[in-house]
C-alpha cells in the first residue's frame, strides 16, 4: 500500500467523466436508473437464502446435512467463477470501454431461477436426486448472477467520485436493493405457502423471476447512463499486444484472489470482516422459517419478521449516510455490528414474552442490516482507489473477489444452520407430512438462530477493528467534497 491518502484520479483510458474529482456532481436521474438494477438483485440474493434450505428439508425431504451441502457446494464454485468474471470484465472495459456485454448476459438469470425450484416429479421423489437438481441449477443461476453483479458493482469505482460521493452512490443502490429484498422476502413466503407443494414454489419463482428480469434490463440502461460522455476508444490491435500482462486476458481465479488479497491489506481486512457478516445475515434468513414455525408457532409470521428485518433499511439508509459524514464509515459500521449482536441475542426469548420482543429485536437487526450493506460496499472502492492507479485498472478483479466473498458467506450461513439442525436431530419431511421435532431439535433451531449469529457478528466486529484506511481516506477527500449529488 503506497497511496492511502493519494488524490484520486480518473482510471486510465477515461477521457471524460460525469463527475468531478470530488464526486459531487452526479445527476440524480442517472443514479436512480443505475440503482433500479439492484431491485432484481435484491430478489435473487433473498429468496434462495430465505427459502431454499427450507424447501429442501421440508418439501423435498432432504436431510439437513445433505441440504446444507447442496447449498454450500455451488457457492464454493463461486470462489473460482466470480474472480474469473471480474478479470473478464476488466478485459472488456480495456478493449471496449465498458462492461456492458457481461452485464447483459447476466439478464438470463430468471429462467435459471425458476428451474431451481421446478424440480420434476420423478426427481422430487428421490431426495438425493432432488439435491443434485437444485445444486446443478444453483451453479447455473449463480454464474449468471455473477455476470450481472460483478460488472454492476464495478461502476462506482469506474466513476471518478470521492470518499463521500461513493457512499452517496451506494446509498441510492442500497435503498432500491432494500426494496427488492423486501419484495422478495415478503412475497416469496406468501406465494410459496407453507411449503406444501413444489408447484407453489414454481409459481413463486415465475412471478419473482419476471420482476428480476425487468429490473435487470433497467439496470443495464442505468450503467450505460453513468458511462463517461466521451467513451474511451478501443485500442488498436498493436496497442493491445503491447498491453501489460494483466490485460492479456483473465488470470486464473486462485492467482487473482491471492494477488488481490496479498497486495491490498485494507481490502483483505474488509473482505474477511464482510465474509463473517454475510454468513451471519444469511444464516438469519435461512433460519427464519424454522424459527417462526417451531419457536413462535406461527408459520405465517415469516413474512412479518422478514418485513421487520428489511423495511427499516428504507428509512435508515439515508440516516446512516448522514451519520457517516460526521463519524466516518468505519465507526458507523462498528456500531451496526455491535447492535446486531445485541439484537440477535434478544431473539432468544422466543414467544415467552409475547411477539413484541421478537419483532422489536428484528427491527434492530434491520436497522443494523442497512449499515452492514451500505458501508462495506462503499468502502471497497476506497480500498481500490487508495491502492493507486495500477489497482484501479483491475477493479473488476477486486469486485469479483468481493462478490465471491459475499457468495461464500451466503453459503456458509445456511450451512452452519443446517449443521446445527443436523446435530440437534431435526427431522426432514416431504410436502404435506407432519413431523414432531425432538427437544434437541428445538434447542438447535433456537441456538442456531440466536447465539451462532451473535458469535459470528462479534467475530466480524473484531476483524473490522483492524481496518485503518477510513480516517485517511476521509481526510484526503474532506477539502474538496462539498457538493451534494443532485
Describe it:
It is a single chain. By secondary structure, this protein is mainly alpha-helical. 75% of the residues lie in helices and 0% in strands. It contains 19 helices and no strands. It has helices spanning 28-58, 64-96, 100-105, 109-117, 121-124, 127-158, 163-192, 198-225, 237-241, 253-263, 265-295, 301-310, 312-327, 329-346, 356-386, 389-392, 395-424, 439-464, 469-477. The protein is globular and about 60 Å long. The two termini are 33 Å apart.
Key structural traits:
19 helices; mainly alpha; globular
Count of helical stretches: 19
* E-strand count: 0
Strand content: under 5%
Q: Indicate the low-confidence ranges by residue numbers.
A: 1-24, 229-250, 479-486
Biggest sheet record: none
Q: Residue-averaged pLDDT, rounded?
A: 81
Give the terminus-to-terminus CA distance. Answer: 33 Å
Order of helices and strands: HHHHHHHHHHHHHHHHHHH
Short synopsis of the structure:
With 486 residues, the chain is mainly alpha-helical. The longest helix has 33 residues.
List the helices and strands and how they pair.
Elements: H1 28-58, H2 64-96, H3 100-105, H4 109-117, H5 121-124, H6 127-158, H7 163-192, H8 198-225, H9 237-241, H10 253-263, H11 265-295, H12 301-310, H13 312-327, H14 329-346, H15 356-386, H16 389-392, H17 395-424, H18 439-464, H19 469-477
